[in-house]
Amino acid sequence: MPELPEVETIRRALVQEVLHRRLRALEVRERVHLLQNCTAPQLEKALVGKRLTALDRRGKFLVLEFGPWAMVLHLRMSGRLLLHPAGHTRLVLDFEGRTLYLDDARRFAALYLVPTAKLWELDPLRRLGLEPFTPSYTLEAFRERLRSRREVKRLLLDQTKLAGLGNIYACEALFEACIHPERPASSLTQQEAKRLFEAIPRVLERALAAGGTSFDKYRTPRGEPGRFQEEFSVYGREGEPCPRCGAPIARIVQGGRSSFYCPECQR
Ligand SMILES: [Zn+2]
Which residue in 11, 57, 58, 60 is the catalytic one? Predict the structure, then answer.
């Protein structure tokens, strides 16, 4: 699933390709699963003829502003925004000089239409937690979010606590901070909380530099895969040696998701 680095990589590419271009037409080819709060004619009426005035990201959500209206998009499991069709087109955005295809094999992608003035009141956005790389991401605010008996790994995946992190980067950040994924969040010492607070943006930054992770279907709009999977320390490496101490990487299941960690380094 695209996490913060993948969605941000897509956003940056779209700034190059379609920002300030006028939307000439749009075609919804999949409305049942995709459209969350509008019909295809409503979407068309609100956006067609308008310029794409801003491209934002909040957590794993992409926000495309067309003047008074905004389209909010979550790619979920397999959604991709491509500059070429790829076999599972659900939405076509025909800009002047560029066409954008929402490709989504598994049909979990979600689209919301909202007046730009009320953008941040939209339910899935309003409920999002701390955003790394913004001034709101402070050690104090982070420690506030850790005040819970829940397992720290599961807490990191809770988008209402911290926005943008998914399974891959949560595993990698916990490894970097030397924290066992099953620790109750509230049991972290001040020093451990600080290590984790610093590890999260560091891991995300490295993933961004690599253009994200292409473990599954993720591609940039130009169709390029990310390269961060080549730099994984623990994710998907069960049984392989820990890059820090050489002990075999272990895998457990937490809340239905695999957690990979080093039983020696992560306490
Ligand atoms: Zn280790």
Answer: 60
Q: In this structure, is residue 133 part of a structural domain?
A: no
How far, in Å, CA of 169 to CA of 218, rounded?
A: 15
pLDDT of 120-161, one tens digit each?
999 999 999 999 999 999 999 999 999 999 999 999 999 999
Same domain, 214 and 256: yes
| Distance from the alpha carbon of residue 69 to the mean position of ligand 1, in angstroms | 49
- Indicate yes or no: pTM above 0.70: yes
Residues, the chain, total? 267
Q: Is 11 a known active-site residue?
A: no
- Residue 18 CA: distances (Å) to CA of 49, 97, 146, 173, 243: 14, 9, 39, 33, 41
Q: Residue 192 catalytic?
A: no
What residues contact residue 16 under an 8 Å CB cut-off, 6+ apart? Answer: none
Using CA atoms, how far apart are residues 251 and 239, in angstroms rounded to an integer? Answer: 8
CA 39 to ligand 1 center in whole angstroms: 52
CATH code (residue 51) = 3.20.190.10
Number of domains in the chain: 2
